[in-house]
Amino acid sequence: MPLRSPLNSQRSLILTLVVLLGSGFLATSLLSYYASRASIRDSIVNTELPLTSDTVYSEIQKDLVRPILISSMMARDTFMRDWVVAGEHDPEQMTRYLNEVMSHYSAYTAFFVSNTSLKYYQAKGVLKKIDANEPRDIWYYRVRDMAAPYEINVDPDMANKDNLTFFINYKVFDYKDNFIGATGVGLTVDAVIKLIDRYQQRYQRSVYFVDAFGRIVLTGAQGGPLGAVIGQSLKDMPGLNDLHDKLPRPQTGSFEYQTQGQNHFLNVRFIPELNWYLFVDKQEDGALTDIRQSLYLNLFICLVVTLVVMFLLHRAIGRYQRKIEAQATLDSLTGLPNRRGFDLMALKAMQEAQREPKPLAALLIDIDHFKRLNDDHGHLAGDEVLVGFAQDLQSCLRQSDIICRWGGEEFIILLKDTNSASAQQVAEKIRLLAEQHSYTFSATSLQITVSVGLTELQPDDTLHSLIARADHALYRAKHTGRNRVCMERARSQFE
């Protein structure tokens, strides 16, 4: 089975670490997001919307329920009942009374309709007489015949240029509980819409009102959710049609629905004073915008951190790999290439020399009697000599030449673009330098000599055959007296 290349191993390691790191960041970010989302949803459903509903209800009691209380007070006012029972002799008295109600309570309109005379009284005087055949007067007969003490109705106000008005119509009884008329006050629909818009702007929620039949009765200026308008039934609104069936009986609580791919949280509160339902609606996306942006920011930071880690990891692995490669191809003592490093460089040099062609010479060098030096002075002294001699060798060579510690006290050199004659000169230079140089260890001067085997590359040579001839030449040099250079030619021709 072939071994994986270092590059593939490096890529696999980086990819694995990136996957682990990215997965950890992603899992942490998503868990944080969903935990925050659940917390926010719980806060909206159980705290925010009920609190908003309570606050809006308090505002309604102040702004909308107030006209109901005024109408109730008017229906029970002894002046009004006494005046009607007495025969309605002075219409100006009723006019002044209605004008005072409008002025004191800042009502848009105030009215009284007598069941005896069928006269419609308002602050400016008698408006008209109620006619059962007049479509615009049907409201009065509806109020007269209804069981409830009052109703809330939206109609054009004839006393104010038919402006659409929010009327509270309250039944009036005499002291014997006989129906004697209808009274009340009104707010313009525009004013009520402004109130709702104020609620929505203040609380950043959709606020609208639904009657017991599931019809929207009041919304803001922009309509209800999904552009719902007054009069529209919940049955016709996606997501809210199931809620319609729950409305005939007072339903107060929190609901959740989905429409157009968006989740909505809804708090419903029954308002008995109006016999309506207050709907406070909040879209989930609006509430989650901040944490979603936080999620995107976290993911971006995670991406940046992952990329930085990848970059740093790539550099660290590259440095480590180069260090390992250097350790694998360099001799730890002398810093020269070892056999593995030499093999890589030598094969390349031989290919270049054989391809051009150019001469290439090999020198195999051995320090004479190195074992005796180790025995006499110790291995540390031997190491010192090896380091010093390696430096001397490098000083004798060109940058392009290849030098290697072949093993023990042996060194090998490849001289590029160098024939036998020039190589012999270099070998003699090395031999003389070694002979003349003194190496110091622990204040002891150490002298050495070297033997050199020389050969030149032939066209049909391999690295093995080239080194074998150099080794044979070295063998001759050592057995013919040492401290000399011997050269061997191809086909056993000696010199």
Helix count?
Answer: 13
Unreliable stretches (pLDDT < 50, length at least 5) are none
The CATH class label of the domain at 339-492 is Alpha Beta
CATH superfamily of the domain at 339-492, please? Reverse transcriptase/Diguanylate cyclase domain
Q: What is the residue-mean pLDDT, rounded to a whole number?
A: 83
CATH topology of the domain at 339-492: Alpha-Beta Plaits
CATH architecture of the domain at 339-492: 2-Layer Sandwich
Largest sheet, spatial ordering of strands? 3-2-1-6-5-4
Distance between the termini: 48 Å
How many β strands by DSSP? 18
Q: In oligomeric terms, what are we looking at?
A: single chain
Strand content: 15-25%
Shape: rod-shaped
